[in-house]
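Below is one such record:
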Amino acid sequence: MDPQSQLEVLCRGVVDLHQKEELLERLQSGRPLKVKTGFDPTRPDLHLGHTVLMQKMRAFQELGHHVIFLIGDFTAMVGDPTGQNDMRPRLTREEVLAAADTYQEQAFKVLDRDRTEVRYNSEWLSPLSLDKIIELAAKRTVARTLERRDFRERLEQHRDIYLHEFLYPLLQGYDSVALESDVELGGTDQLFNLMVGRDLMQRYGLPPQIVMTTPILEGYDAKLENGQVVGKKMSKSAGNAIGLLEPPTEMFRKLMQIDDAVIWRFFELLSAKSTEEIRALRDSADPLATKSAFAVEMIERFQGADAAASAKNSFFATYLGDGVPDDVPQCDVPGDADGVLLAKALSQAKLCGSNSEARRMLQQGGVEVEGTRITDAFAKLAQGSESLVRVGSKKRRFCRIRVIPT
């Protein structure tokens, strides 16, 4: 593919690009570009939000460029302060390495394993002597570092900023120096760190890397307000993530919960469907079919066609009919000789967030036990009983609750 056409493909969906002219010039050189993307494995599992960036990496691979999947095993122990109002908890090396193994296996569901170089930044950061760290720190001013929004806000609010947090952007930037990267990819929340890398490369006498950022995907609970998608970014801590290795039925259910107006944002950032195919779905004006098509595509990609078909059949039988999922969890709830209050059992089985929420759900007719609707907020489950319990109507949740002796 000619350089101009490559540029158009690579810039599709990109938010920040520094600098477009430089990228075109390097593409025109005809040599494969060295494309670096760093991941700090702070959690052992990936969600759909992570794959937005990985798909851009895959686009570079398919155009013949060299992609480096950089595991930030050293920087993860420092802790990225991006978006943090307080210091991020520090992780042990064992925790980081365990998460890194899982990261790679999931990442290769998007990336071409044979065309991906995996590196760990402890290779060059661990051996750095104190004089080299001082030399690195001398290449960045405190004033420039405080331009970072989260640092500035914490300073204005008289909240602590620890010295090692100032080191994080420098260490990530030094990764680019060590790898002599042509391009670094990251989410929009990483722009500051990526630009530090670009600046450091010049200070070490290297051609500066091109910086490209991709959008941050919101959680499946996002809404459309005044024409804009509004919501927290997808993350496990926010409780709005869709994990790549979640049970397919759970994954399908969450995908079907995406707001009808927001699903197009997910198509734009994640779907491999063509513009014409997506336009046809828009024209169909059938939100259920649209979200179902997206859910099937995602589950097929990460867990296979059989898993997607089974999850779709289970969803439509369970949530649009009177069926019961095949993978209903079981929960043992302690009770005395008189049993246990149903509301308390619902809370302990995680079907409701609290006893009071469970009582409200009962009074509103949103609870069934063995197919019978229960509206008594003080109803009990008998000692030794095992019951199939359903909570909710549109967003049905099931559990087999067994009452055991205290």
User: Anything to note?
Assistant: The two ends are 69 Å apart (CA to CA). Residues 58 and 111 are 5 Å apart (CA to CA). The longest strand covers residues 397-405.
